[in-house]
# Entry
Amino acid sequence: MHRIKDVIIKTLITVEPHVVSTTSRCTKHRNICFELYGFDILLDSKLKPWLLEVNISPSLSSSSPLDKKIKTVLICDTLNLVGVFPYDRKQYERETEHILKNRLLGLNNHKEDSIEANLAPDSYLSKLIK
# Structure
C-alpha cells in the first residue's frame, strides 16, 4: 500500500504546476473547488505498482453491487473531506425559531447583536454560516 501511495503522490507532484495554473485561471480562490482523480494501478507478480492511467473525470456510475458500494463510500468520503453535510430542514427551522423568539423577548446577546453570537458552537446554523 505504501508503494501505491508513493506512485500517486509522485504523479500528483508532476502535474501540480499545471493544476495550480489552471485553478488560478478559473477561480479567484483556490479553496472553493476540488477535483476527483481516478488512478488505475496495476500490480505485477512482485506486487510492484505500475501506473496505467489517471482519469480526471472518473465514472461514478456502478455496474455491480460491489462497484456501487465502493463508489458510495468514495462519494461520502469526498463530500466529508470538502465539508459538505446533509441539510436538515427541521433542525434549521427549530434553531431559527429559537433565535427569533430570543430576539423578540430581548434575550439575545446585546454585546454583539448578530446571529452568530446567539448560536451554540455545535448548532446546525453555525455549521451553515461557517
Observations:
- Helices lie at 2-26, 65-81, 89-104, 124-129.
- Residues 108 and 114 are 9 Å apart (CA to CA).
- Residues 89-129 form one domain.
